[in-house]
Amino acid sequence: MAYINSEVKPFKATAYHNGEFIDVTEADLKGKWSVVFFYPADFTFVCPTELGDLADNYAEFQKLGVEIYSVSTDTHFTHKAWHDSSPEIGKINYPMIGDPTGQITRNFDVMIEEAGLADRGTFVIDPQGVIQIVEINAGGVGRDAQELLRKVKAAQYVAAHPGEVCPAKWKEGDATLAPSLDLVGKI
């Protein structure tokens, strides 16, 4: 699973987005920063807490020019039904991609084959369509949108400032590092 610095593989899917069904392809991930957020299934337990957290923080991602795409192996019809029936999911304004064939889930190597469901996988993709961050969580461990937002800001900073890197716990405005021979053994 060496996906860092690899390009997103081709796919075509249908998503539920703002009351409509739309087509989404890997080309839609280019030209801006994107987060592809896999989760096991609609109408479950941890998943709505994660998707609701993303919805609550969506405006902050949008300010950074980041689009979020949630993906499960459910259909786009199921996404609409969940959106219409759950107040937590009803807050979502980002595209909810249906992947009933598992093509996208397999492309990102997060398919749980024996279950036909996705692992909790998070992928941050740069405007060139190249994966910069990968995080995979066990099924019972939910993710935090604020931590993801921090990581996206760090990835954007590093992309915009060649020769600088962000240390652990870096937050926007904090000092960065410029790797050099002088820093070896001094941090």
Automatic annotation (TrEMBL):
Reaction equation(s) it catalyzes: a hydroperoxide + NADH + H(+) = an alcohol + NAD(+) + H2O
Known EC number: 1.11.1.26
Catalytic residues, chain numbering: C47
CDD domains reported for this sequence: PRX_Typ2cys (cd03015)
Localisation: Cytoplasm
Primary location recorded for the protein, binned into one broad class: cytoplasm
UniProt key word Oxidoreductase: yes
Gene3D superfamilies xrefs: Glutaredoxin
InterPro entries: AhpC, AhpC/TSA, Peroxiredoxin, Peroxiredoxin_AhpC-typ, Peroxiredoxin_C, Thioredoxin-like_sf, Thioredoxin_domain
Residue intervals of the Thioredoxin domain: 2-157
Record-level GO BP terms: cell redox homeostasis; cellular response to stress; hydrogen peroxide catabolic process; response to oxidative stress
GO molecular function: NADH-dependent peroxiredoxin activity; thioredoxin peroxidase activity
Its biological purpose: Thiol-specific peroxidase that catalyzes the reduction of hydrogen peroxide and organic hydroperoxides to water and alcohols, respectively. Plays a role in cell protection against oxidative stress by detoxifying peroxides.
Subunit details: Homodimer; disulfide-linked, upon oxidation. 5 homodimers assemble to form a ring-like decamer.
Name of protein: Alkyl hydroperoxide reductase C
Organism, as annotated: Thiopseudomonas denitrificans
